[in-house]
C-alpha cells in the first residue's frame, strides 16, 4: 500500500469540486477541474464495453485518461493495462480491491484515485459498485441498464442524488450524430407535433444466439429480462423524443418462441454441442460458423473476442466451444428470455409509440424508425434518414457522420459528453439526469409487468407504487465494508 500511496501522489494533479454531501466529507474538493486537464478514469470491467468506451481516451488523451483498472481475467487485465499504460500499482483484480485502495488514499491524503469511475461489469453488479464509488465522491458513468430490479434502480438514484456527483448512463443511442440530428429536428418543431413513433430493433439472429441464448444475458435469474438488458435505451430514446410528455400507459406482448428444445431440428439428434452435431454445417447458429471460422480467417473481434480471456486463437476458442456455454446447441441451452417482444406506449399528450425487439433478422442492431408528425415524417435506419415536409412537399435525405465507434458513434458520443460534463461540473451537458434515467427504466419494468400479467399498466401508478415501496430503503454503510471481501467473478 505504501508503494500505491507514493505513486498516486505523483498521478494526481487535481481533484473534483463536489456539492455538499454526507458521502464525501473529509475529501479535498477545493480544486476545480480545468478544461486543459484530462479527466481521469478508473475503469471497472475491461471487457467489450469497457474497451469500447475507453477508445475515446486513446483518441483524445488530452481530454481523458485511464489511470486505474479492475479486471479479474488475467490476460484481459494485462492487455488493457498495457494499452492504456496504467501503472501496475493501480491495476486490481476486483473492483472491491480498487475501492479499498481508494478508501485508503482518501483517508491518508484526502484525494480520490481518479475523477470518475466507468462501471462496465455485469448488470447485477452495477448497483453495488455504483453506490460504493458514489459514496467516495466519484463521478459515475455506468453501462446500461442501471440495475436489474426496480428496487436496485431506485437505490441507485438515491445514492447518486446523495453524492451530488455527475452521473452518466450507457444510453448511447442518445449521443450518436444520427440520433442527435433527429432530436434537433424534433425539438425545432419544423414538422409540427410528434404524434407517433414506430421503432424496431433488429437484434440479429447470431447476435441474439451469442448474447441471449448462450451468453451472459440468457437467463432472467442471472441477469434480467431481455427488454431491459437489450432495449432499455430504445425505450429511453422514445421517451426522449416525446419529452416533455411522459408515458402514461403501456402494454406488451412477447415470448421465448424459437430458442427452446421443442424447436430443435430432428436431424440434430441427441447432440448438445455444435462440434459434435451431424447437421452443424446446415445450422445458422453453428458455433463453428460464428466463432471458429472467423478466427481461422484472422478475425479476433466481436463476438469471438468475448468468449476467451485474451487474444482468441484456434486452440483457446476450440476449448471454449468444447467446454463452455458458447459451444452448446441453441436448442439445448438454459436460456429463458424473450426472443421477440412488442411494446405499445401512450404518452401524457396523447401521442403514441410502438417498439419491436426481434432476434430473427439479418441486420444487427440497425434500428429502423418511422416518426410521424402533424406536418411531416422522418424515416431512418441509423445510417441515414429522410425528412418529408408535407407543407413544402419536400424530401431531404441526411447522412450523419459516423466516427466508427459502436452504436452509430454513440459510444464515443457518450464519453465525449460525460467528459465535458465532468470538466465543467455540469450534469446538464449530458442532456439527462438520474431521475430521468430512472423514469425510463421504470417504463421498461412496467412494460415487462404488462407482458407477464396480461394487462395494460398505468405507468404513473407503477412509478408511484415503486417509489413508495422502496423510498425508505438505503444501502447501509456496513454493506460497503463487507463488500470489499466479495469476489466479482
UniProtKB/TrEMBL annotation:
Q: Which residues form the signal peptide?
A: none
Name this polypeptide is given: Streptomycin biosynthesis protein StrI
Residue intervals of the Gfo/Idh/MocA-like oxidoreductase N-terminal domain: 40-171
Q: Determine the domain of life of the protein's source.
A: Eukaryota
Pfam families hit by this protein: GFO_IDH_MocA (PF01408), GFO_IDH_MocA_C (PF02894)
**Species of provenance:** Laccaria amethystina LaAM-08-1
Q: Where is the Gfo/Idh/MocA-like oxidoreductase C-terminal domain?
A: 185-457
Q: Name one GO molecular function term.
A: nucleotide binding
